[in-house]
Amino acid sequence: MKENNDFEQRREHQRINTCILVIISAYYNSLEGMILNLSCGGAHCVLEEFLPLKTKVQIAFKLPMSTFESHQLRLQGTAIRIDHSTKTNAYDSYKFAVQFGEVPPYEKKIIEDYIAEKKKNDDNQLKDFMR
């Protein structure tokens, strides 16, 4: 049986580390960034712009499902946690968590399938590395 820390046990949705380009729209602006990890309930992102806590956003991203297929998702959400800025090269960057609003069942299934496939691929790479 796999042991998890208390925080992981409290999570409602499985989460996976990833690196996906994202467009965050808020206050009539569109900001480019990266999704660092993803679940059906939300995403942990990094941007070069600061977003205030509780900002309502639209988050748009493509999930690669195979070599020739990807799915474009556009979800509504709220910035629920802002991490302190970090200096990367000449730029400040801000990490923040977006909690998704209502995720339609079809889009939830796409996210679940992406997470399952990525986890399987990551596990296989780890097994290959350990040989």
Automatic annotation (TrEMBL):
PilZ domain: residues covered: 9-116
GO terms for MF: cyclic-di-GMP binding
Superkingdom field: Bacteria
Protein name as catalogued: PilZ domain-containing protein
Species in which this protein is naturally found: Kuenenia stuttgartiensis
